[in-house]
Write a structure and sequence with these properties.
306 residues; mainly alpha; 2 domains; two-stranded antiparallel sheet; 12 helices; 2 strands; disordered C terminus
């Protein structure tokens, strides 16, 4: 006899399909949890930095030493272009990956996608503009920022090309890659502080600063209090020459989170470039692991169940 009380047969009984209850259109709980985690972090990070959109807020919230560069019109324009474009892009991206929205509001999904990709290109341009000054503008920092701008722009282009060609699955994959590449900036904030603390623990670390930049930070040019109470010329004798030589004179500044503001700036710059590279690599590998671990999609409809 079969398990349903019918006539015994050699074939296995046909089981009724299992009905999964979806939340926001997510059919797999893992995808829902990942969206809540990464999407939630993205929204929190964006909301916490909205004050940076104004020059006054930017000056207040930037790391010590950064306002020396961003008070200049070119870099300030680059930063504002970057933030005013990336912030709305990040918010749009979070909701673009909600299956319920893209399945029931397809036209809204299309329009938001075009807006997000357009803003992303503007934001990438702003990022390229500020790369020479961001956290000291070291070669590792600049190369990481240029790479991030390139790969995120390329991924968004591939997503657009694939949806134009009707390849929905490939469109989703490239859009997800683009979002994860961009998210490496958030991870970098934690990684840079952590790696700096580790490096400082194993011995003294130093970062090169220009004398005019040091004078700006220590002279309360950013509205900060000089906690060391030591004149620039005494703490850094090489900066005691004439003011005209300061832009070309550089000195090593010790990296520590417990000293003066210039030493805090040094600590924040110490591993920033390396941290960007590590986070970009981790995010790139992580998104590929996720895509390869997902069940194979054989139809356009299956993309809505992610």
């Amino acid at each position: 006899m079969s398990s349903y009380g019918g006539t015994a047969t050699n074939s296995s009984p046909v089981m009724p399909p299992i009905q999964h209850k979806s939340i926001l259109g997510f059919m797999r709980r893992r995808s829902l949890y990942l969206w809540l985690f990464f999407g939630g972090l993205t929204l929190l990070f964006t909301l916490a930095h909205l004050e940076n959109l104004s020059p006054k807020g930017m000056r207040k919230r930037l790391a010590p030493g950064e306002w020396f560069w961003y008070q200049q019109k070119y870099y300030q324009l680059g930063m504002q272009l970057h933030l005013m474009s990336v912030f709305p892009t990040s918010v749009i991206f979070v909701f673009q990956f909600v299956p319920y929205i893209r399945n029931n509001y397809r036209q809204t999904h299309r329009v938001n996608g075009r807006i997000a990709f357009t803003l992303l290109y503007i934001g990438a341009t702003g990022g390229i503009m500020i790369a020479p000054s961001a956290f000291g503008g070291s070669p590792s920092t600049q190369s990481a920022m240029y790479t991030l701008a390139t790969v995120s722009s390329f991924a968004s282009y591939k997503a657009w090309r694939n949806i134009r060609s009707g390849r929905v699955i490939e469109h989703r994959k490239w859009a997800l890659r683009c979002a994860f590449y961009m998210g490496s900036v958030i991870s970098c904030r934690v990684m840079s502080v952590s790696t700096s603390l580790i490096a400082i623990y194993f011995g003294p670390q130093y970062v090169i600063f220009r004398c005019d930049e040091l004078d700006f930070v220590m002279g309360m040019g950013e509205g900060l209090k000089n906690t060391s109470h030591i004149p620039l010329e005494l703490k850094y004798p090489a900066c005691g020459d004439t003011l005209s030589s300061w832009p070309t004179t550089v000195v090593p500044v010790r990296s520590t989170f417990t000293g003066g503001y210039e030493e805090l700036a040094s600590a924040l710059r110490l591993t920033f470039g390396a941290s960007m590279w590590m986070c970009l690599t981790l995010h790139a590998v992580g998104v590929e692991c996720y895509l390869n671990s997902s069940p194979p999609n054989k139809s356009k409809k299956s993309t809505s169940q992610s």
